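During the second year of the project, the team shifted from modelling isolated chains to modelling whole assemblies. The rationale, set out in the original proposal, was that interfaces cannot be judged from single-chain predictions alone. As a representative example for this report, we include one of the complexes processed in the last quarter. Its constituent sequences, exactly as entered into the pipeline, are reproduced here:
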Amino acid sequence: MSTTAYYIPHKATWPIIGTGGLMLTLAGFANFLNGSSIGSTMMVMGFMTFIVMLAGWFSLQATESESGMYSTQVGISYRMGMMWFIFSEIMFFAVFFGTLWYTRNLSVPWLGGLGDGPGRSSHLLWENFTAQWPTNGPGEIGGEFEPMGAWGLPLLNTLILLTSGVTCTWAHHGLLAQKRDQLIKGLIATVALGFMFVAFQAIEYHEAYTEMGLTLGSGIYGSTFFMLTGFHGFHVCVGAIILSVVLFRSWRGHFKPENHFAFEAAAWYWHFVDVVWLGLFVFVYLL
Amino acid sequence: MSAVVTEHDDHHEHDHDHGPSKGLLRWLITTNHKDIGTLYLLFALAMFFVGGAMALVIRAELFEPGLQFVQPQFFNSMTTMHALVMVFGAVMPAFVGLANWMIPMMIGAPDMALPRMNNMSFWLLVAGVLMLASTLFMEGGAPASGWTLYPPLVLQTGAALPFAIFSVHLLGISSIMGAINIIATIFNMRAPAMTLMKMPLFVWTWLITAFLLIAIMPVFAGAVTMLLTDRFFGTSFFDAAGGGDPVLYQHIFWFFGHPEVYVMILPTFGVASTIIPVFARKPLFGYSSMVYATAAIAFLSFIVWAHHMFTVGMPIAGELYFMYATMLIAIPTGVKVFNWTATMWKGSMTFETPMLFSIAFVVLFTMGGFTGLMMSVAPSDFQYHDTYFIVAHFHYTLVPASIFILMAAGYFWLPKWTGHMYDEKIGKLHFWLSAISVNILFFPQHFLGLAGMPRRIPDYAVQFADWNMVSSIGAFIFGFSQLLFLWIVVKTIKGGTGEVVTDEVWEDASKHGLEWTLPSPPPYHTFTTPPEIVPTEHF
Amino acid sequence: MKKAKQLIACVILMAMSLESAQAAYDLNLKQGVTQISHDVYDLHMLILWICVFIGIAVFGAMFYSIYYHRKSRGHVASQFHESTKIEILWTIIPTLILVGMAIPATKTMMELNDVQDADMSIKVTGWQWKWEYEYLDTGVHFFSSLDEASNRARQLGSGIDPRSVPHYLLNVDNPLVIPVKKKIRFLFTAADVLHSWWVPDLGWKKDTIPGFINEAWTYVEKPGTYRGQCTELCGKDHGFMPIVVIAMEQVDYDNWVAEQKGLVAETNAAAEKEWSKDELIAKGESVYQNNCASCHMADGAGMAGAFPALSGSKLVNGDINSQIDLVYKGKGMMPAFGQMLSEVDFAAVITYTRNALGNAVGDSVQPSAIKSLKSSAPAQNDDKDEDDKDEGNT
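Output from the structure prediction step:
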């Protein structure tokens, strides 16, 4: 494909279908939260539409890519798109890391009468509260709980994710070296490790809720813990699903050493999820 | 070499029929940057009138002391919705519309880099605004906590709360998609001769704006997500009893919110820097310093957020740091104003409607900048904060700045877009009515604020009556004057004055930008192959 | 353009004429009655003048050029478009000006922050939509809300001309009283949502944050009445929770404190006594009109879609304890009245709603019952004894 000719797709129907699906999903969720009975139906219908859109749009892209319609320039556009999408995701996680930092270093100490500003006298409202971490606040919201330790499942999960990063790269090397067998084996290992991570995370949550008294409602510790690990877990799921699709496409013989944007995008996303986990392990579990 | 590779949804053959679909469907499924640009611009214009109508409800209620028309709760919904509709429905989409239309034409590209996503970002915007507007009809009314959605007040919203939050999510996804597309287009689709430092300033400012958008929209999404979980899932992010802090929300919000106001002003700078040289018949003064100043403003926007919160009770170190950092913004902003003045200096100026709006922008935006400088001084801000003084300040930086420049852009490029000339006489009438009434509308609000009138109140003490009445009169003149613009746009699309529009439209405009080398109106697909020349204005 | 120029000229003139003619038209910032407010005013004027000066220079150049360098006058455009020297110049000069501004600003900021060595402390709590004042040294404690005359006039379509109401929207039932020439420390917090306490004459405002305490201080030189308003959007009646501060000589202030303590004793006695149902209903009506009618309407009809009707309401006509519980703790937009109303007022308004507004449940609740509820609920009220009078008031 010549690099100077431009590529212009026409008349896309998937975007408007996706928009409708997304809007229906969110409107349904909002109705559900308000206790309206049609909420969950709307949500399911909207989400199914959204999934159909994703499947349709992505298979269209895959077919186009395999039939050699994309120039180098298009490939660069896609890569930039993915890069900046990941950057936006980093900013999204930054909010919750920032929240954790702020509460641990500012608001909780202030409530306990430490520091300048509101820390000078806010403890007058909460006489029996001593600043410490973890905490569920001076109101002891959510009752007694046991904080999540770092050295059990979380450590195991760290090892799992790090290994999956390696298998993912190994698969990439396979793809580049035309070793299809290595590509597929590497991807299977990565996907399996990804879902294993999710499963362990589920076990950890189950323990937190049933044995440790640690819930989303356990004050600021519970809120930040579950919000950070929850959104991360969700991203691992999405990443593992994307990798599964890439695996499926690899089986069908897709991707060439010089043209495999989908694989690269999935791998970048997976490494991003990996790095976020390292941040979580240090700031949420360890410190 | 010259082929444009195209495809249709169902079959993949190379096709040279580049025309649009027929009828309504064309707009639903279009991937053409001009179609999408038009959609954005028309949608923004419609929302400008919706938001404007809300503003007039506010000004009607404030015409006299005492409550005459609406209940306080509805009044609060109006101030909240006016802001949200104007920011997310009018100003931002209007600039995205300009970006869609102009960036490919200015850099010699056939279209945006990611055309399908372009379609989705427009329709997600519509979905988000629709969801937001639907809250007006819900039990408990639309959100009434101000556009900042501060907890704990916002958590008292009725059925509207989750809808408002999800509309923010939709608008956020839409903006991020739009911004990614703009970045990819600018980095990847430029004609070979169009190096970065030859790009028109409008392209530069949008490139930087797009970075801001990608960095901040997820932050806002995160903040409102925490509102959602605090209300429905028992988290304690903004609740002191659980160890959280309502002020934390404000920090996150303004980390988003301050760059957000620059999202609305940086493209404004870009358009002004495009228009002024054309009518001064002189190259832009200090092109590279304009680029650096824009980047500096964008950088500073991330480290000054808490100047919106001087009175929340931060430790003294925080107050001082944010005061100093905020003061710094005056430097690059000043450079810009000086550069525009120097561009006009010793030019050969004519004063067509776009130029009039641009000059008014420079003057009135600078006045908004002055009050901004005054408020950067934390101890003084203890007096100004949350009064009509700040209402006057930010309206000066948005209405006679962003809105005026959008008007200027409309007059400047409408002949190019439609191939028809607008009616200059009515354009000038529109300008003078707007420029005079906008000052009658907002200038007295400085006095009100200094005299002690808080913002966001539906009724006020009688000593504020005179200036409120003046302000309301200005508001109605300003509001109704904008109907002239609507009329001009419609008439120009339908054929305008009948005058033949050349490719250049404005005298020697082709020296200033690639878009003026194209026919008016430009073909459905602009550049089928990369153009080889670029205007050499800057060198 | 012309208009803008005129306006600028106007501002300059106004700024110059202000110091003498402040009474007639409030165009500029108030100078206020404290040292801090004067400092802030000076800062304000300094920066205003800097802006005016820069404005004249920049706009002067621009308008000169607009007049002389126009095509219609035959001016031919130069083609210069760069000058590193001048760019550097107009970067450095503003920087120096900013440094000049930052120095006095920092000084004033430090002073504002210095709450140490206060003579007395007052805790201010923002409520939807009234202020609670608690004198930490003397135990005086009361709520302050919009006065009745303003409250009547400010209803939608009240037909009352606001100009006929003295200090419309800037008057309260119980003003905050402070002595002059004393350093007074304020402790700000909120009970429900954010509020902000602002009296322009004192020179600052401070947000009140639920669960946190912000501090500020003042030292008023001369006796007088100083008025302000809530300045952080706090819901429906944000515009209707004014602040009135009366600064008195020490002697007058001491008398006022003694009077307040008498009132406290009276209220306590009233809460102990047994009230008849009719007494409670009669009392309840005025409590209802002052506290509830702005949402639930004077006749209890509520407002469709926003505020539920009390007439025929399931809750009001149901179990009395669940009604008390809701009114006590609040829910959504309904404020928690438990700490806001006295025992008598609370019992009266509950009894009133159950036996008026088209409801006829027939039962009533005694102030003493509310009192025991209050003592069991976590309250931060002053539980100081009556004996430690006058302490800390010197």
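Residues 75-286 of chain A form a domain with the Four Helix Bundle (Hemerythrin (Met), subunit A) fold (CATH 1.20.120.80). The longest helix of chain A spans residues 72-111.
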